[in-house]
């Protein structure tokens, strides 16, 4: 055996020493260090097991096993075969020990051979060793010599020692295991206990760590350092504990050895240690408790636990209470929420129904106003212009209900505020779109055959042109009412193309100084001030494709000139004259509105061109809307008030319900049928005349003329049916007289004079009568005086009367006269038909035919006619008689009768007016020159106009203003 292996031993060790060195690992460590230098860094030279002093005993025991432990560790690290310390003891696996040594030897040889390649242990070397000193390879060589030199009892003793060493090391390893278990199991708890029990937290040198620069390390490092420190302290404490245990154990062993006064066997030693451990088990358990529960303070743990339990119970209880409360609250909240939801729904329903009601209310209000025919008035407030930002406004409040409160900031006080009400008030921020939205329905009704007039009123610069035309026609957003209206009309026309075919024509009139020229001048109030009234008229004629009915609508869009006072406009010269004209026409407009508001019998339309143009829109069946514009500036306060007052007056005007101008295709058919029937009757009449039944004296005629020319006789206000009955009751002679009277009346009866504002339609109707009568071949009638063209019918009447007083007409003359009248009437009828485009217009010829046709009911069979007492009701009655004619008693004729009866009831007052229409005056002739006056509107008013006031309407359509 290499000498190195015996280092630390005496030069010639005894067997005992050798065995001890073998058992305590000294030899093995030396061998290993020889094979692998430094594998066991520190080899304990002289490990002893004897325990002499209290402090040194345990130390020596540990040192005794240290070499073996180091050897085994080093061999394990070298991945060589290893064994357990217990294998060296008695009963251990000596094969493992031998294998380990052989493996070490093989490794040594491989290294000696140069360590080429990877060293592998070839396998277990079959060692035929026995526990009782079988030679191993390790012991060959020099060591063999050593063994050879030794005696058998030495070997035996060596083996026994080895066994003992093994047992001790086993105990030692068990102890180590227990220690590691202790530490593993209780390490952290120990740490916890240490921290809580010994309250070392205050002593933790945190500040020092920070100061020393360690504190700047990451939080993790800080934590680890802290734990290290705490563990260090805990280990110190634990070591102290162990040392005290060791000391106690050492003392115990010492005492035992003293008592025994002999060497102690291993089982005895183990028994002593076990007893010691048992005695200390209580302390150990309390220690473990301590470790588990964090120190002796846990003595109160039970109490604390109980306390905590109680607290927990309390908490549980209060939690339950809270839970119940929360649940209650939740239920309450849910209920309240439901209630709120319900309330909200109710509110929503109420709000929506309120809004609906408001809307309905508004609609109803509008409907009532429509029925009344009120002129609608919308007020629009102009915003301050860009250079007037700081100015005070006279507009105090604008209500949703169409009210506006005006205040004079310069004169504060009770009377400074004034409230006005209109259909709607648009504030300064209202857009063109909003303004038009409320106007749109009116414009749309033009397409349904209504006449509509929209006019803008207000002082200069108040925004009339802005509303009607807009500031910039190139931008759709700023389009005014005019552009939007036209756009709308064309859109509707396109959208209805499948149903109605529309013709739209546009006409523009500018009334300047009561003339037709346009002028734009400048005043101090507004440089761009328009000094003329601008009237844009749109005529719409639609034909319903399904029924062939005709709709005629007309839209006047009027931008009036500024309404400022002359003195305020600071105008002189030409401007002054303009302003005067404007004011005159506007005050004429005011007069018309006043008269209309008071339902006056005379409406002074003719006082200005403006009122003439707007006559049909102001007094007819039109829908009229006025935009009244106001300027919010304080210095315009006076103008604003007067403007609003005027607008309120306008709003109070009732025009009567508007009516659509619709002429049904059926009516046209009926007219055609009438004309056919008329010609049939005509032929019958001439046949009757040929038979010469008519025997009327001039005196009779004259008496009729006289009675008619007095103008007092009026057509009785009764229905045609009733009148027929009356006729039936009368004698044939009366009927005949009535007929004769009717003939003469058409030329002779002088109607009473009417006011200037009489119905143009009536005038137009009267005019052909005159012309026809005057065109009559006078020579045939042989009247004493010729009637001049413009002579009044009163003159003719008197002529006829004069003649009647002196001359008796023979039957032939009368027959000629009738024939002549028939021709005239026929002409007149045709002319009327042509001119009026098929309107239900009764004329003299028609009346005559009808009067003839009445014979079967009111006349005798011989055809003798009773002249009618009045002329005017023929128009309706004759139609009825005509229908009832046996020759034309078809269902169609009955239907016609029914229809015409209805119409005649409406027509009645109108016919009466026509009867008293004054004849030719210069004005009437002027009217007749206006060929365009014969439009559908006028015809409609002739046939269906219910009221006398309406009959005064000027015909709508084109005007040629001088
Ligand atoms: N609603 C509005 N919003 C913005 N600017 C407006 C409005 N109304 C009018 N204006 C501006 O006020 C000025 C005068 O308006 P506008 O010419 O329309 O008045 P007017 O009453 O037609 O005057 P005139 O009587 O001289 O014709 C214009 O510069 C116009 O752009």
From TrEMBL:
The keyword Coiled coil applies. SMART domains: KISc (SM00129). GO terms for cellular component: microtubule. Residues 738-759, 775-802, 846-962 are annotated as: Disordered. Keywords: ATP-binding, Coiled coil, Microtubule, Motor protein, Nucleotide-binding. Residues 1-109 form the Calponin-homology (CH) domain. Residues 785-802 have a biased composition (Polar residues). Belongs to the TRAFAC class myosin-kinesin ATPase superfamily. Kinesin family. KIN-14 subfamily. This is Kinesin-like protein KIN-14F.
């Amino acid at each position: 055996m290499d000498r190195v292996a015996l280092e630390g031993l005496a030069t010639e060790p005894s067997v005992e020493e050798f065995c001890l060195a073998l058992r305590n690992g000294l030899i093995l460590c030396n061998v290993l260090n020889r094979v692998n230098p430094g594998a066991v860094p520190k080899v304990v030279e002289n490990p002893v097991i004897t325990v002499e002093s209290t402090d040194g005993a345990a130390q020596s025991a540990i040192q005794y096993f240290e070499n073996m432990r180091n050897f085994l560790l080093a061999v394990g690290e070298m991945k060589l075969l290893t064994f357990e310390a217990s294998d060296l003891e008695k009963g251990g696996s000596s094969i493992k020990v031998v294998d380990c040594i052989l493996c070490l030897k093989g490794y040594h040889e491989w290294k000696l051979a140069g360590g080429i390649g990877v060293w592998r242990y070839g396998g277990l070397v079959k060692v035929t060793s026995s526990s009782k000193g079988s030679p191993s390879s390790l012991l060959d060589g020099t060591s063999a010599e050593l063994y050879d030199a030794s005696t058998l009892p030495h070997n035996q003793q060596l083996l026994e020692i080895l066994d003992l060493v093994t047992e001790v090391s086993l105990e030692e390893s068990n102890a180590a295991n227990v220690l590691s278990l202790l530490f593993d199991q209780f390490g952290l708890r120990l740490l916890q206990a240490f921290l809580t029990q010994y309250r070392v937290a205050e002593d933790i040198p945190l500040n020092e760590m920070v100061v020393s620069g360690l504190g700047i390390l990451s939080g993790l490092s800080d934590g680890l350092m802290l734990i290290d420190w705490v563990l260090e302290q805990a280990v110190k404490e634990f070591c102290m504990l162990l040392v005290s245990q060791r000391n106690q154990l050492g003392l115990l062993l010492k005492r035992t050895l003293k008592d025994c006064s002999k060497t102690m066997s291993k089982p005895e030693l183990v028994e002593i240690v076990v007893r010691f451990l048992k005695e200390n088990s209580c302390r150990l358990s309390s220690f473990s408790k301590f470790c588990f529960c964090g120190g002796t303070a846990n003595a109160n743990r039970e109490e604390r636990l109980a306390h905590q339990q109680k607290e927990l119970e309390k908490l549980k209880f209060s939690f339950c209470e809270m839970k119940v409360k929360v649940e209650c609250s939740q239920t309450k909240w849910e209920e309240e929420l439901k209630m709120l939801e319900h309330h909200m729904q109710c509110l929503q329903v109420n709000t929506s129904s309120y809004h609906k009601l408001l809307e309905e209310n508004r609609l109803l209000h509008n409907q009532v106003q429509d029925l009344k025919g009120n002129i609608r008035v919308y007020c629009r407030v102009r915003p301050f212009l860009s250079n007037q930002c700081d100015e005070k406004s006279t507009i105090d409040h604008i209500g949703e209900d169409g009210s506006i409160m005006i205040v004079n900031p310069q004169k504060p006080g009770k009377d400074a505020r004034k409230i006005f009400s209109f259909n709607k008030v648009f504030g300064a921020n209202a857009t063109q779109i909003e303004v038009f939205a409320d106007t749109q329905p009116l414009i749309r009704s033009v397409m349904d055959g209504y006449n509509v007039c929209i006019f803008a009123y207000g002082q200069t610069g108040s925004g009339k042109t802005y509303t009607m035309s807009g500031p910039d026609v190139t931008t759709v957003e700023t389009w005014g009412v005019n552009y939007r209206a036209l756009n709308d009309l064309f859109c509707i026309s396109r959208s209805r193309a499948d149903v109605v075919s529309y013709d739209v024509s546009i006409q523009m009139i500018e009334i300047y100084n009561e003339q037709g020229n346009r002028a734009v001048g400048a005043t101090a109030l507004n440089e761009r001030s328009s000094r003329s009234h601008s009237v844009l008229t749109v005529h719409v004629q639609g034909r319903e494709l399904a029924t062939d009915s005709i709709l005629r609508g007309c839209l006047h869009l009027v931008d009036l000139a500024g309404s400022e006072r002359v003195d305020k406009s600071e105008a002189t010269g030409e401007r002054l004259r303009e302003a005067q004209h404007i004011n005159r026409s506007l005050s004429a407009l005011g007069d018309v509105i006043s008269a209309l508001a008071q339902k006056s019998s005379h409406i002074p339309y003719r006082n200005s061109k403006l009122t003439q143009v707007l006559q049909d829109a102001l007094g007819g069946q039109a829908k009229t809307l006025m935009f009244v514009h106001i300027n919010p500036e304080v210095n315009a306060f006076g103008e604003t008030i007067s403007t609003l007052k005027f607008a309120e007056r306008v709003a109070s005007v009732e025009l009567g319900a508007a009516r659509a101008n619709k002429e049904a295709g059926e009516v046209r058919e009926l007219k055609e049928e009438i004309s056919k029937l008329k010609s049939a009757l005509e032929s019958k009449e001439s046949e009757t005349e040929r038979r010469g039944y008519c025997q009327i004296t001039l005196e009779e005629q004259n008496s009729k003329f006289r009675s008619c020319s007095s103008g007092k006789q009026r057509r009785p206000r009764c229905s045609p049916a009733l009148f027929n009955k009356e006729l039936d009751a009368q004698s044939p002679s009366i009927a005949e007289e009535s007929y004769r009277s009717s003939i003469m009346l058409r030329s002779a009866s002088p109607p009473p004079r009417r006011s200037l504002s009489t119905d143009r339609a009536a005038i137009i109707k009267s005019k052909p009568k005159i012309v026809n009568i005057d065109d009559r071949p006078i020579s045939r009638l042989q009247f004493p005086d010729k009637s001049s063209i413009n002579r009044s019918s009163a003159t003719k009447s008197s002529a006829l009367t004069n003649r009647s007083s002196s001359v008796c007409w023979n039957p032939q003359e009368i027959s000629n006269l009738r024939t002549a009248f028939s021709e005239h009437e026929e002409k007149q009828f045709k002319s009327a038909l042509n001119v009026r485009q098929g309107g239900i217009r009764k004329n003299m010829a028609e009346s005559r035919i009808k009067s003839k046709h009445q014979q079967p009911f009111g006349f005798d069979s011989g055809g003798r006619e009773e002249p009618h007492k009045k002329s005017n009701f023929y128009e309706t009655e004759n139609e009825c008689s005509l229908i009832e004619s046996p020759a034309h008693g078809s269902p169609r004729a009955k239907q016609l009768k029914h229809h015409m009866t209805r119409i005649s009831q409406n027509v009645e007052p109108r016919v009466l007016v026509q009867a008293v229409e004054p004849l030719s005056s210069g004005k009437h002739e002027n009217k007749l020159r206006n060929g365009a006056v014969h439009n559908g509107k006028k015809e409609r008013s002739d046939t269906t106009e219910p009221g006398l006031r309406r009959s005064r309407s000027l015909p709508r359509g084109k005007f040629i203003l001088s």
